[in-house]
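[step 3/7] fold_predict: job queued, chain A
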Amino acid sequence: MAVVGDLALMGTKITTPNKLIGKLEKRVFGVPISFSPKFSFSHNKSRTAIKAVMQIEKIQSSSELKGSLKEGSLLGFDVVSERELKEKGFLGLRKTKLVCTIGPACCSLDELEKLAIAGMNVARLNMCHNSREWHQDVIRKIQKLNEEKGYSVSIMIDTEGNQIQVVDHGSSSSVKAEEDSIWYFTTEKFEGSRPFTIQANYEGFSEGVNPGDEIVIDGGMTTFEVIERVGNDLRCKCTDPGLLLPRAKLSFWRDGKLLGRDYDLPTLSTKDWSDIVFGISEDIDFIAVSFVKDADAIKHLKDYLASKSSKAIKVLAKIESLQSLHRLEEIVEASDGIMIARGDLGVEIPLEQIPSVQEDITYVCRQLNKPVIVASQLLESMVEYPTPTRAEVADVSEVVRQYADALMLSGESAIGSYGMKALSVLRTTSTRMEQSCREESRQTLLHQRKLGVSLPDQIAEQICNCAVEMADNLGVDAIFVYTRHGKMASLLSRNRPNPPIFAFTNDNSTRMALNLQWGVTPLLTDLSDDMEGNVKKTVELIKAKGMMKKDDAILVVSDIIPISTARAIFQSIQVMTIT
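[step 4/7] structure written:
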């Protein structure tokens, strides 16, 4: 394996079996080699052959290196990962990432820190709720915890979208709709709340709706039957009692089928663009786009971000409609990640199809190397109760078994009374299921689609595929990847290796983006063009923190591009044991 530019070959040397498969001697296969007559390139119709001279160099011993480390060198472990590694070891680290929606129940500095300690990797802010000042306050609290306390929690804003199917009863909390009670759905604008009155956000919400049709709120939380039309308003009777949450979503059904209506409105509303500008100014890490219909809106937003922000803000597409399912692959390819919004999706497709559709979306994301979040109603009962149902735990376990990158809490953390307990359930359940998947060696059953188009991309992909296979076969304790933009870290994650992936980067945007990648612990540290120096420095710093012990084996991958040499690329694998 090699790359155009500076080439690097990989390999290992195994001696007497000692740890799992064998004790690995300290060898480095991956010394960069400049373009020279040593290389020969031959081309034919079927393939390109690349030959290179392989060079070997021993790694400096621990005692030799200690004197060269600068005092006060920083290794960007967040405090939670550092604690978990010390307590549980490499294979005890949780790989599935956890996203928490922040709301009134958990917006104080103390509650946010509790969530961070309990394993929250990404904090989600739903722009449908609360004021701009509230969101700014939460964002700055999280950034304060990151900067002053050593946490590494990424921040995501979730756009409201064109809320043509959103209704609100005007109260700040939920309202109970009793069976046979009569309610009015109106487009009239008023402040506050009125008894048995629900305000629609879009004036044309009732177009094409007839008496006898059903209004389903939030995918089945409450159901109404339309009794009569009164101008643009609807007079309805509650047929399935339940809770009406603030800013709930409604759908219309006729004869057991969704009443589909195509509103010709842009994916991103005027308010969404205002929220995006706000997000840029607040240095957020992710933007989740609601009600995505096709790839165009995602491409447009990414172009806008590239022109307005110096930071690489990642764009996630929410899959929550039939339209998005029909264009799934193009949306996944255009985005930086996917959120499966099962609640809204369950309104538009039969409930019994949700499990298979979720699995299909997860599979497509894995194939195209995009992180995927499974969201909505994972532990819905814990909004009100301190323990989940067994069915909810089984649901979470299945998501982990499908190798989704992340699990997300919505109302459970935002408005629930037991947000911390809900997060604990996600953490313990995912850790247990990951262990079960390792025992079953399920990674060997996964077949990846080839993604690379250019030769360097193809080689990077093959390096990562081979690196994970080596890591699993040799039973190494960890994979270290040195990366400026996170590409090879994501390719390693895609293969779902048994050992954890530690991604060393000197770019904070990359670090925060990798918080959403399965199995990746991102670390912010200085990186130089001297690859061997990077490896030696980080290994010694981790040893000094007591997080590595003698005979631990690590596999090292790099995609560092030396800044000083425009055409040079350093991609390599090396395996070493700790002495």
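[step 5/7] annotate
The first strand starts at residue 28 and ends at 29.
DSSP finds 17 helices and 27 strands in the chain.
exit 0
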